[in-house]
Structure formats: structure tokens, C-alpha cells
Design goal:
Largest sheet: 3 strands, antiparallel
Oligomer: single chain
Structural class: mainly beta
Distance between the termini: 14 Å
Number of strands: 3
Strand order of the largest sheet: 1-2-3
Shape: globular
Helix content: under 10%
């Protein structure tokens, strides 16, 4: 899949989200019920994308589906 022609878009502003890096989030920082519970257990690195207009943040598990995300 060509991720350059398929950017991640803010659902509110309809503009491309900007990749800000991969962040390590330790267990306990975010309630597991908020981010999907057991699916994220032992996964503490997330690719972070931010809307430069409204500040919306999208988290993606590092190492899963990276071929579908622009960097």
C-alpha cells in the first residue's frame, strides 16, 4: 500500500496528522480499559500522530501495521 497517497487524516479537521515519534508509555500511565485492555498488555511503545490544527492525538502500537502509516 502506498502510504504517501493515503495519509492519516484528522476526523475533525480533515487535514493530515503529523508523525511526532515513538513514545514509551509505561503500564499504569493510561488505564488499560481506555486503550483496549489485554490487547495492549506488554506493548508499551506507541507511534504518535498529532493534528497540527486542533491537537487531536492518535496512538498506534509500535510494530503493528506500520506499513500502512506514513512517517
Amino acid at each position: 500500500m502506498d502510504n504517501i497517497s493515503n495519509p492519516i487524516v484528522c476526523p475533525r479537521c480533515q487535514i493530515e496528522l503529523k508523525y511526532t515519534g515513538t513514545k514509551k508509555i509505561h503500564e499504569g500511565d493510561i488505564p488499560t480499559s481506555l486503550i483496549g485492555g489485554e490487547f495492549f498488555e506488554d506493548k508499551d511503545r506507541f507511534d504518535i500522530y498529532v493534528c497540527p490544527r486542533c491537537g487531536r492525538v492518535e496512538f498506534f502500537v509500535d510494530g503493528i501495521g506500520e506499513e500502512f502509516r506514513p512517517r
